[in-house]
Amino acid sequence: MSKTINFNVPPYVGTEMDYVREAAEANRKICGDGPFTKRCSAWLEECFGTPKALLTTSGTTALEMASILCELEPGDEVILPSFTFSTTATAFVLAGAKLVFVDIRPDTMNLDEKKIEDAITERTRVIVPVHYAGVGCEMDAILDIARRHNLKVVEDAAQGVMSTYKGRPLGTMGDFGCYSFHETKNYSMGEGGAIMVNDPACVERAEIIREKGTNRARFFRGQVDKYTWVDYGSSYLPSDMNAAYLWAQLQEADAINNDRLATWNAYYQAFEPLAQVGRVQLPYVPEECEHNAHMFYLVCDSLAQRTALIDFMKARDIYPAFHYIPLHSSPAGQRFGRFHGKDEWTTSISERLVRLPLYYGLTAEDRQAVIDAVLAFYAQEDEARG
Description:
- This protein is of the alpha/beta class.
- The protein has helices spanning 16-26, 35-48, 59-69, 86-93, 139-149, 203-210, 216-220, 240-250, 253-276, 303-314, 331-336, 346-352, 364-385, and strands spanning 52-56, 77-81, 98-102, 124-127, 152-156, 164-165, 168-169, 176-180, 193-197, 289-290, 297-299, 337-339, 353-355.
- The strands form 3 sheets. The protein has an 8-stranded mixed beta sheet, with helices on both faces. Strands 7-6-10 form a 3-stranded antiparallel beta sheet, with no helix packed on it. It has a two-stranded antiparallel ribbon with strand order 11-13.
- The longest helix is centred in the C-terminal third of the chain and has 24 residues, at 253-276.
- The chain starts with 15 loop residues before the first helix and ends with a helix.
- 48% of the residues are buried.
- The model has no long low-confidence stretch (mean pLDDT 95).
C-alpha cells in the first residue's frame, strides 16, 4: 500500500507540549493574556514593527475587531476581492456593511488595485486587500487610493506571516492587519489569530474591545484603580495554553519558513518546463515581494483538467485541494454584496486552481512523489493527444 500524502499536516516542532504543560502546571495560568500570550505578542511587535499586536481566538475575530475599530455603520461599503474565504466578508457584514467585490489580478490572484477606484462611492469606508498565498498586494497603490479618498485599509494577512512587500511585513501597512494561526497556516495554535493595530491612536480601544468592552488592560497596568464596562466588545482572548503552543513555533519561525520555501522552490523548478510550454500557470511573486511559501498552486487549462488532475493524484494517495468558491456567486454573497465591474478572472481562476501538498516537515521523498504524479499526469495527457 502506498503512503498517503495529505494536503496539510499542522506544524509541530516538538516543544509545544512542554510549554502547554508549563502554562497549566507551573504558571497556573490558562485563560487569556498570560505569560505565553505576552511573549507571542511581544515577538510579533518586535519582529514586524507594529505598535500593538494582540492575539485573538482566530483570524476571523481579528477581522471582526478591525471592523469594529473602523466604526462602520449600516449601509457603509467595503471593497474586497470575491476570491477569498468567507470570514473576510462576514467580519464586515456583522457591522451591517455592504460588500463590493472587485476582480483579482490573474498573476498574483490578489485584489486588482487598478479596479478599486472605480468601485468607490460616497458610502465606501474600507478597502480590504487579501494577501493571497502570502504574496503581497500592490500596497503602495492601495494605500494611495485610501489616503486620497479618506478610507481605512484592513489587511487580511491570514496567509502572510513572515512575508513582506518592499521590505515591510504584510499586515503592518494598513490601519489594521489580521493574521491567522489556524492549523492550516504556517504557524499554528490550533485556532487563533492576531490583530496588528498599526494606528497608535486605536490601541487603547482595541484592548477594550478585546476585553469584553472593559478597560481591564488599563487596570492591570495601574492606570485606573478598578476596571469597568466602557465600550462595545467581546471575548476575543485565546487561552494561554494555545499561545504556549504557538510560542514553540515562533521560536522556530525561520526554520519553518525555510523548510516550506525548500518545498515551494522544488515544485517551481520541477514544473517550470510545463509552464514554459503553456501547460500550467505557476505562482507569480512580484520582485518587490518576499513570500512565505504558504501554498503552491497550479492553474490548469480548464475545470475538467483540474478535476482529472485531482482524481489522478488521489488514485496515488496524494491529496491536493482546490480553493475558494467566489463569494459573489454564493447565496450570502448575493444577499450581502454585489460584484463591481466585470468578473474577468475571479471565477475563471477559481475553477482552474489546484493547491499541492505543502507543509512543514514534508519529506523529500513525499515531495518527489507529488512532483512525479503531476508530471505523469501531463505526460499521459500529452500521449493521449498524440
